[in-house]
Amino acid sequence: MKKYFVLHPSVFKLDGGAMFGIIPKPLWSRAIPSDEQNRILLSLRVMLIQTAHRNILVDTGIGDYHGEKFNDRFGVQGEKNPLVETLKNLYQLNPGDITDLIVTHLHFDHVGGLGTHEGHHQNLFPNATLHIHRQHYDYALQPTARDSGSFQKEYFKPLIENAEQNKKVHWVTGEEGEILKDGEDVIKFRCSHGHTPFLLHPYDEKFIYMADLVPTSHHISIPWVMGYDISPGRTTVDKAQFYRFILEKNLTLIFEHDMENWGAKIKVKGEDYEVAQRFTVAEIDHQKYQLSFD
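User: That's the sequence. What structure does it adopt?
Assistant: Structure tokens below.
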């Protein structure tokens, strides 16, 4: 039987206008207030899934390698080795205990906790198999000028190449399929393309990890699309398709960047969708941050 946890190793800030695209500030600021630089506070939520034989991480957060100027610009708050320390303090897990790492996409705030480059590139999770979408990786190495700043390939490329040399990379391909299996426990995936090509969304019979397709509960409405998205019109199409799938499977959405809400159920509202039930961080056990989908 799987166990599910959400980790909160660090937080950062992004421009509120960029996070909500065409939605005017008088509307989005009701949901999330901004600071004096128009930035909003966002979680860098990571998911831990435990099966009989596996400790699985979904994404790794922003890491700690960026430097003072970067951290000040993006309001990064977190201790040294934030993900490693969180795993140790809450779950008594060492980096070597992580068996699998599912990478939704290679933007710096999702893959930054993969390793360190203090003097040399080193994977922080040496025994973990990296599950990465092949077509997304290819795109990340040659992105457009518009989104190239989101991909710090000088950081992730050596780490992934090192993992591949050690036969620790599972290249996921296609639009949907299976990521991994442990007995009867299976984690599958579907892809979206509006935020970035071949964005990987892990799911099982309980949850679906929305990553940056729906970064917070305030982005549920189909037109509420980030300005960061490489193809905002495609995002609206992807969201509608995903919502139909989510309702059919009765899945709980997991939000990667929502400070107050780790997840939600959705419902139809006319030709759009809205939150049917909100699951707040305040309501879960802060000793372990274990999720219950009952």
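The first helix runs from residue 16 to 20.
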